[in-house]
Amino acid sequence: MNFILFVVVVLLVASQSAAQVEANAIFLKRGMLWETVNVAKMGPVFQSWQHKGYGMDFPGFDPEYVPQLVGGPNTHHAGGGFWMAAVRPSAPDTVWAVQDWAMFATSVGLSETNSPYLLKTHRLRWPNGENYGMQVDPYEAEEVVETEWEFNPSYRFPYTPGRFLPVRVKRTVRAWSGSAADEKYIIIEYVITNIAREAHIFNEQNCTPEAYRILKADSVLQDAYLLFTYAFSINYRGWSILFPQLGDGARNNRFLYDPRRLMLYGWADDYTAAEGNQKFDPYIYESGGPPGGKEWLAPAFAGIKFLHISRNDLGLENFINPSSVGWSVSEPANSYPFTGLETPEQRYEAMKDLNKVYNPLVFPQGLSDSRWGNARMWSMVSLGPWTLEPGDSIKIVMAEVVGSIDLSRITDPQLNEQEIAQQGLLDLQNTADRAQFNYDHGYNVPDPPQPPFSFTLTRLQEQTVGNVLTWSNEAEAIPDADYAGAEAFDLAGYRIYRSEYMPFGPWKLLADIPRQSPAHFDEQTQSYQYVDTLVNVGFSYYYAITSYDTGHAYWPVDLSARFKETGSNRVPPLESSKYPNHSTEPFAAAFAPQNETLDEILVVPNPFVTRSGFTTPGAQDLISFVNIPSPCTIRIYTVRGDLVKTIEHKIDTGIAQWDQITDYGQYAESGIYIFQITSHAGPTKNKTYTGKFSIVR
């Protein structure tokens, strides 16, 4: 009986332990800034600068959203995190180890026999979005990822005998995805503890003989250093469009360090090895493309800001020596800061002195180096030293930050690089300051009202073109936890935005709808409706709905707080993010099915000239059949009578589109084509309509 009870307890413990670990990669992709939270590191696992996952994608979008290659996502780094090393007191010339929790981070796993560091926790605190709108914990982030790993005393180190750090690392990643004021940063908190004398670590039963011998001689981590490294690539999409032949990893990045804000940041500058000026990656479309034919592919500034650094052995808190900021020139692509440094001792010395890393550029003297503008760069910040006695901890809190000119202007042909630089840098600084404000107030900031949980897109059923947005009023019942009574229910209205280009914008404000507006709110269904009639048949659009308030006279959480927008404790008006519930698939404007007559069928455009008129990527090659019945069959023939395409139209709209790909998988050639539409609906059932159109390439 006791044996059975023991087995049940073991199984329960194992089940609970397994429940603490989700997939290796947890994706934060609800808001505007997307990130991969990997086991022991941030961003994708580094593979020679290749894009293998989200890495500060801003504005975030999956390329699969767009039915045409647009250069990939807006990724800003290919991997990041920190390295750690310390000296053994009994052997001052010997380093405990140099651990990688930044590049590959392969030392952390679940196997007690094969993992130098055991992964104890890696999970979303609210896996089903329970805290969206701050509904569970109003004083926390909407999305929180908790990760913990610690030294595994039973692991045998076959290649580096006795090289380990007896530490536990707790990492907490926080993202405020629903707030337009807080969607451009992610806060990452690390707590690193010396566990050399914890009972489950320091005992002969758990420890390998070698680990026990070392821990018996040494339990102090002396002169410990952390080296934060990020493989910034600002940005992947712009680089891959302009220089696809050069492979991944932008070479036109430029970086600076802001010592007052403890912030390292970069932007896309001129690629000196190519003709022209690529600053912020301007791109002119020869045909098609966005309105105006011009897009700024990399308008953002991106970097890392340190919000808190534990007091070091010099007695300095929140301290970074400017000469401990630098860059390692990553040429060739598979090089990194420790290339050519084989021993832990060599790597430790490089962590202390960045002039000893591979191909170094150290702030500030390295800023005039000729390698800027033609090479990939690993960004580095060295922190320390600390002496950690058993049980001692250090805490490092940092933020991944992005700043940008308003993205409504990224396709503005009048926009110039001076405006991007001035407004983008100011936005980056404001974002960094907001992240600092957030940390300083215990992860609490003034919040906007919750946006609609979702909305539906339909089309007008009359013979009038219009896209219909419908959403419920559920968000109006969610109070702002910082206030009491009627003031807590502060949702003042909704804003409707539309993008004619990409799922991330640029956005155009269509309407501002006050709460309970009689023109849009239906008391019986408790829902809102907005009809967008300023659309063109056959063109596709993306939509977003936000909620906003009108601000508050004060912020009761901290009456001494001052907000930049008001210069006082008055809280400025706040708006929710466009991203939690924006549409990600293009929605085509169309008439209702024409099942009464076949006399008004049109082909748009006709003649079709390649990339004529459309702006939404993927729509440049679409031919639309308008005012058609549903369901129906569309057959397209050459003038010789050869059948090139059959389309079975079954959706409840009066429009069908053809991407000019034949049933044989080839693009249709220039020429005149005959189409025949056979109706399967209403009075027109079994009737046909025949017409013609032309394609000019």
UniProtKB/TrEMBL annotation:
The keyword Signal applies. Residues 1-19 form the signal peptide. It comes from the Bacteria. InterPro entries: Ig-like_fold. Keywords: Signal. The keyword Signal applies. This is Por secretion system C-terminal sorting domain-containing protein. It comes from Caldithrix abyssi DSM 13497. The lineage of its organism: Bacteria, Pseudomonadati, Calditrichota, Calditrichia, Calditrichales.
